[in-house]
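ugh ok fine here u go
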Amino acid sequence: AGARNAGLRAAIGDWVLFLDGDDVLVPGALAALDARLGETGDVDVLHFEHERTPWWVGEPTNPAALVQARTPGGVFSPEEAAELTGVQLPAWSAAYRRTFLAEHHLAFPDGHFTDVGFGGLVVLGAARMAVLRQVVVRHLLRRQGNRLGLPGEHHVELLDQAELVLTRAAQQGLSEERRAALFEQLFAAVLKTAAHPGRLPRGRRAFFRRASRL
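structure:
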């Protein structure tokens, strides 16, 4: 979060795209983004597809394609794509209009699982969105996984991010369809963590108790 927010404060361009150290842009990515933005105009967020590629063995997957499959082909509002809540995709699976982020004071929240909080707040604040049905980023899956999959108390911070997004959503009077999709997707992430035998070595009961109050 700190590095991304520092980069965001230093950015001066029209668009922001985040890349982690284990991500690369595929050949032709920037040209494809430029062409799509030329078609859509000044949307707040342009979501795109990405590949998760195992570095050792296995076929690449494209989870963003499934999330975006039911979205309209042109520019749309969040109300027209209730299932695109922003909490299922990493921050590096979209390009953001910098002035939109600045006007809404959007930045990455502290702690772990910050893509959940940031992505959810972005879509709650957006008015115009679009998708690019093309892989732009290739993410390298490490054999040992990443920190978010390791045991530890940091998994409680997933509840912090869920609470942050749900609190903001409650203030906006979302449609029933959008509320249902957001709640379902956030709790799918919570239950995935709770059901994993190794992620919560201690405090499982407290985790469930707090999750039930969200």
